[in-house]
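Much of the work behind modern protein science is quiet bookkeeping, done one molecule at a time. The fold becomes a row of whole numbers, each drawn from a learned catalogue of backbone shapes. The protein below has been through that process, and both of its lines are reproduced in full.
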Amino acid sequence: MNNFKGIKKNSNKINYYNMSIEEISKIEGKKSILIHACCAPCVCWPLEFLNEKFEITVMYNNSNIYPETEYIIRRDEAVKYVEIFNKAHNANVKIIVTDYKGLEYINKLSILKDEPEGGKRCLFCYSTRMAEAYDYAEKNNFDYFTTVMTISRQKDSQILNQIGKSLEIHHPKTKYLYSDFKKKQGMDKAVKIQKECNMYRQQYCGCIYSYQEYLIKKSKQQ
């Protein structure tokens, strides 16, 4: 299992949005970046935010998503949006889709099945997918790596950036780009794009346990 030592909620919050702006302002020309993406709704605004300064490759590596039919819907929506973005911005964003290994992922996650939403189970999920994508970025000589998950109001950008910082130590060739994509109306801008594109918007985070919780809540509402 992943080591979560040192990764925790911090009362002294760091402004990761400002850190991203400061780093991007130093870049001359265009640098390559690999961004881990969980879905089209979360990737849409980060593409806008990063496009001017980066040659972007999106990695969709999300075997956490259950069931597989949901994984396919989110995958196809992400691929479709990248095509829409490229046409709209005359861009050349690439997307990589890894193999779906849902059962293998559930087996790894099962030891943390009783953890509450936002607890160690989620930390394992975030760090596992980010590490997998970061490994690819390092092996393929990307200048930067980041994740779009900091756009979500349901996810703690302080935690996600701590994970990114801890992973950067093991990836010396590829710099981690700190982010908080939800800031400065980032989430509002994403919602606007989602509506304009009539985008599929999922009702739960992704794993089998969040899916079960979603079904319970749904049944209570009926």
